[in-house]
C-alpha cells in the first residue's frame, strides 16, 4: 500500500482556493477577506494569509495598492501574454523532452487524452483541463529539467483557468486535435514533426483567444 503524506494546512488551503479560482467558483474580481475565508474553511487566519500570498505569487490573486486582494481578472491582454509565455516555456520543454519519451510515456499520453475527451463529453472542464495538461507534462517531464517544469507548472494553472472560464468547444478542440496529432506523429517515429505540431497549437490557440470576447 502506498502511503501519501497529507498536505500541511497551508497547502490544503492553497489547493482548495486554487481549485475554486481555476474553476470559476471564486469569480474574477472577488475580494478575498482573510477572516471570511478562515470562517468558511474552518481554520485560523494565519494559514489563510499564507495561502493567499502563495496564490498572489502564482498570479491568481491581485494585490491592489490599498492592500485589497482580489481574484485576478482575465483580460484579453493578460490572456495573450499568458499564451505567449506558456508557448515559449512549454514548447521548449517539449522539444527537449520528446527525444527521451518511452513507449510507456506514449501510452500514458494516449490514456490522458482519452480521459480529457471523456471529461469534455460530460461537461467536466476541470477534469478535462487537468487530463489534457498531463499530456504536455509527460513530454516536458521527460526532459528532466526540474527548473523548467516548475515554471511551466505556474503557467499551466493560469492557462487551465482560462480554459475553464470558457465553454467554447472550439478552443478545447484546438488542444485536443493537436494532442491527437502529436501522439500519432510520435507513434510513427516523427518527433520533429510532433514538436512542430505542438508549436502550432499555441499559434492557433493564441489567434483564437485574440478573438474571444472579454469584459472590459
From TrEMBL:
Transcription regulation recorded as keyword: yes
InterPro entries, A to Z: GntR_C, TF_FadR/GntR_C, Tscrpt_reg_HTH_GntR, WH-like_DNA-bd_sf, WH_DNA-bd_sf
Alphabetical list of SMART domains matching this protein: FCD, HTH_GNTR
Keyword annotations of the record: DNA-binding, Transcription, Transcription regulation
Domain HTH gntR-type: 7-77
Presence of keyword Transcription: yes
Chain coiled-coil ranges: none
Region forming the signal peptide: none
Domain of life: Bacteria
Name of the protein in question: GntR family transcriptional regulator
Species whose genome carries this gene: Actinomycetospora aurantiaca
Amino acid at each position: 500500500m502506498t502511503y501519501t503524506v497529507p498536505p500541511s494546512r497551508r497547502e490544503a488551503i492553497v489547493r482548495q482556493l486554487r481549485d475554486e479560482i481555476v474553476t470559476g467558483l471564486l469569480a474574477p474580481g472577488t475580494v478575498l477577506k482573510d477572516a471570511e475565508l478562515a470562517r468558511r474553511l474552518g481554520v485560523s487566519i494565519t494559514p489563510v494569509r499564507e495561502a493567499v500570498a502563495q496564490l498572489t505569487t502564482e498570479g491568481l490573486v491581485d494585490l491592489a495598492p490599498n492592500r485589497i486582494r482580489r481574484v485576478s481578472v482575465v483580460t484579453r491582454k493578460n490572456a495573450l501574454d499568458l499564451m505567449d509565455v506558456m508557448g515559449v516555456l512549454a514548447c521548449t520543454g517539449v522539444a527537449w523532452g520528446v527525444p527521451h519519451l518511452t513507449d510507456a510515456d506514449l501510452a500514458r499520453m494516449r490514456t490522458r487524452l482519452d480521459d480529457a475527451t471523456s471529461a469534455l463529453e460530460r461537461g467536466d472542464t476541470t477534469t478535462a483541463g487537468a487530463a489534457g495538461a498531463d499530456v504536455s507534462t509527460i513530454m516536458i517531464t521527460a526532459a528532466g529539467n526540474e527548473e523548467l517544469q516548475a515554471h511551466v507548472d505556474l503557467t499551466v494553472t493560469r492557462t487551465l483557468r482560462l480554459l475553464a472560464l470558457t465553454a467554447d468547444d472550439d478552443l478545447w478542440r484546438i488542444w485536443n486535435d493537436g494532442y491527437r496529432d502529436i501522439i500519432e506523429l510520435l507513434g510513427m517515429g516523427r518527433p520533429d514533426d510532433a514538436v512542430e505540431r505542438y508549436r502550432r497549437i499555441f499559434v492557433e490557440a493564441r489567434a483564437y483567444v485574440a478573438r474571444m470576447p472579454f469584459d472590459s
